[in-house]
Write a structure and sequence with these properties.
Blueprint (H helix, E strand, L loop, with lengths): L39 E2 L5 E2 L5 E2 L2 E2 L22 E7 L5 H9 L18 E6 L6 E7 L6 H11 L6 H9 L18 H11 L3 E7 L6 H11 L5 E6 L8 H10 L6 E2 L7 H12 L6 H33 L2 E5 L5 H25 L15 H4 L5 H6 L7 H10 L3 H4 L3 H6 L14 H6 L1 E5 L2 H19 L30 H4 L14 H6 L7 H4 L2 H7 L1 H13 L5
Parallel strand pairs: 5-7, 5-8, 8-9, 9-10
Antiparallel strand pairs: 1-6, 2-3, 4-6, 6-7, 11-12
Helix pairs in contact: 3-4, 7-8, 8-9, 8-16, 8-21, 9-16
Length: 562
Amino acid sequence: MNNDNKKENYEHHTPTGLFADKALPSDSNNNAKTSHSTVSKTATQSRVTHDNQSISTESVPPATTTKNQNVTKKTIASGEALKLAVVGHTNTGKTSILRTLLRDVYFGEVKNEAATTRHVEQASLTDSQTGEVLVALYDTPGLEDASGLMDWLEDNTASRRDGIERLQQFLASDIAQGADSGVLDSYDYSQEAKVIRQLLASDMAIYVVDAREPVLGKYKDELAILSWAAIPVMPVFNFTDSQNANIDYWQTMLARRNLHISTRFDSVAFEFEDEMHLWQNLATMLTHSEMLEQLMQRRTEDWAQLYDEANIIIADFLLNVASFVREINEDDDPMPVLEQMQEAVRQSERAMQHNLLNLYKFYDNAVAATPLELQAYQQDPFDPELLKSYGIRTTSGAAAGALLGLGIDAAALGTTLGLGAAIGGIAGGLLSNTSSIADRITGVKRLYIDPATLTLLATRALDLLTALRHRGHAATDATQLLYKGENSSLGTSLTNDINHEDEDNNPITVWPTHKLPSELKKARGKPQWSSLSSGKSEQAQLLRTDMAWSLSGKLQSYKRES
């Protein structure tokens, strides 16, 4: 990533948020203006990355590592930001969970190897409207050898002392200082010491469990040590979407340790309801939960706003394409114009897709793969096979099917000799000319994008939106984001023929091809609405704004999610 990647956001609107400068390039010609306010913002202290961009993650100040410093614990009070430590064994997905909670693909470092996080890093969840810090999150290193530490604690601390006293004694010892102490590496518990210091300084903790892992003795020792900190600890099951999840065994073990409140939160296969359950369960463990209640309310509002804005982006794009019109003389060969129109639509769809990714903060594929890398999104929208995979066909036989492959309204071409020559004469005499009487007199043909292609574009856009709403910001591969709902058309291949009657019950397409929404039908007669026709993007967008709002409401009524 470098500074050359900085682009203006949709409709010349500079995107807000920490990494707005890393956003994908967007096209102001094709989408509605958005004003999303970010909820997740990281702490004010900044460090500088290799590309000289400021990332507001913060390591714990060195003062907390003083050898003989006693750690004092504060109890959360009403109106005070919650200090939440994220702890667990190495490589259980602690940083991944924080990425998803923060909506930040750049937070921390995620690798498929142990001990990726070596220092405590801080981030904050704030009220998107007031900027008030509601939750301070602390990403801690993984517990590498809790069993060894437990043995040391049993051998070197008095059992009659309480847990905090025993942990403080450990923090004052040489083995907690790491390389600075001069002790052998085999007795280096500096990583565990970082976790415990932060634990004692926090109001509560979530213990991240890789649900795919069996219940081992080392995890039991970790929980025993964490319990000595005398703060509420809630287990959070990560990677719950895996077929190898062992949640039942984990819950049995946790119950034996009086940990009866747990939650599921998959950092890859994201569900907004799971996030709300996480905050709700944490709130039940606090005397003063006002900050968490405020956070839940704001994040719910912001999540709904995101959905509204996404549907407006899609609706605006569809209206822009539906109103796209080119005129040719009756005897002209339409193929050059058809190809130009197709390319304009392809670019417009790509810009719309990028705007959706930017809206949900999946900025580029330098960190993680995006859904646009899937074949389903790379396939040409004018490929007849793609139409077939969505169960879309036309009503006028083989000739109309060939025209659909061109993505142009066949009725607009009619018996044009140029078209017949271009596609082997298969369309001659099949379809009537629907141009106006004035056009007939002047010998003008108007070319539009056909209803089937508009239906395909709408359905594919909503598929992408659904996938993004179910993608965690820790997902690193494009296949990890696909929503596995019954109605998802990604990856399907429907080869059965569908008539008009069947299309009405087609679970894949957003609407039957012969029943375009009234907004798209109206756009057919409004070429001034299309920046693709006029080249005047801002003016055209203003003209179609009201229709975009109306159409977005109809798109929202089509729910692919249960």
